[in-house]
Amino acid sequence: MAIARFENVDVNNVAISVDDMGQTNTVLTKWFTTRAKVMDVRNDLTIPKDERVYQNHVKFMLNYTPNTVTMSTDQVDYAFAWRGNDWRIADVNEANDKMSITFTCYRNDPQTQV
Amino acid sequence: MSQNNPAVYSKAVQYQLKSIVGNTIPVYAVFNRDFAKQPKFITWQLRNIHQPVYTGQNQNNKGIDRPVFQINVFAQDQNDAFNISNTILQSLHGYNGQFGGSSGFYIAKADVVWLYNTYDDTVKLNHIIMDCTLDIPT
User: Fold this and answer.
1) What is the ipTM of this complex?
2) B10, A16: Cβ pair inside 8 Å?
3) I need a surface site. Which of B14, B61, B95, B104 has the fewest CB within 10 A?
4) Buried/exposed code over B25-35 (b: 16+ C-beta within 10 A; e: otherwise)
5) Any B CB within 8 A of A17 CB
């Protein structure tokens, strides 16, 4: 029997602040902690020319709630914290039966020369 | 004589522009990453720090620096862009006194040159470019 994998994730608000030198900084503020169904963890390497680009992908399935609908409406304003990393939302799929919302998230590692 | 710190200049420029345009119009150094969502904002860049100068209200008042900062006014609405540039022009041109709040410095004069207006089609924003030269006495 397949095992559903539920793990703790934090949902963060993503905002941009300006410091006293006029520099913009991304500020992550925790909104809530929840348990997401974690699916399709995938680490991907592409070598476009003479660089290696690592991309990590994961899907988080959450219940369809007012909070997750807000995240679905404006996905750039939210991020997930999972396994100690910051995951930004790429795709959002709301289930047609309004039972769940699946967020496809990504994280880029630094680009490295081959 | 030690030279002024460019970091102090940048903080003072940020402070002064914010105090001129108020809280409704954001001010950034060089680049605004949130440009797609903000209908009007200002960026600035510093240049020409440490020029060999003398300046001031009279010739005995020697200057130690004459930095220039460029002010970029961006707005979706052309009327907004021109009016924001006017607010800066009226407030800054000919100004002498404390620049950059309590942690800033005294300036003998600020000269603003309203250079030109243009339109950036890739970001759909009106753009007005101004230069401000600060005369900083010893």
Assistant:
1) 0.70
2) no
3) B61
4) bbbbbeebeeb
5) no
- The alpha carbon dihedral of B16, B19, B21, B27 has a sign of positive
CA nearest B32 in A: which residue? A24
Q: What are the tokens at A56? A: 């990590």
Residue B117 bridge partners (DSSP):
B128
Distance between CA atoms of residues A49 and A113, nearest Å: 9
Alpha helix (H) residue ranges in chain B? 6-21, 78-92
Does A16 reach chain B within 8 Å, measured CB to CB? Answer: yes
pLDDT tens digits, B80-93: 999 999 999 999 99
CA distance B114 to A13: 39
- Predicted pLDDT at A113: 66
Give the Å distances, CA to CA, from B58 to A57, B61, B63: 66, 6, 10
- State the Cα–Cα distance between residues A53 and A104, nearest whole angstrom: 19
User: A108 and A53 in contact (C-beta within 8 Å)?
Assistant: yes
The bridge status of strand B27-29 relative to strand B40-47 is: parallel
Mutate to test the interface with B, among A17, A19, A20, A27 (most CBs of B within 10 A): A20
For chain B, positions 19-78, list CB contacts with chain A under 8 A. Answer: 26-34, 43-44
Backbone angles phi, psi at B72, to 5 degrees: -110, 120
Which of A 26-65 lie inside 8 A of B, CB atoms? none
Q: How far apart are CA A49 and CA A112, in angstroms?
A: 11
| Residue B76: other Cβ atoms inside 10 A | 13
**Given an 8 Å threshold on Cβ–Cβ distance, is B44 in contact with A22?**
yes
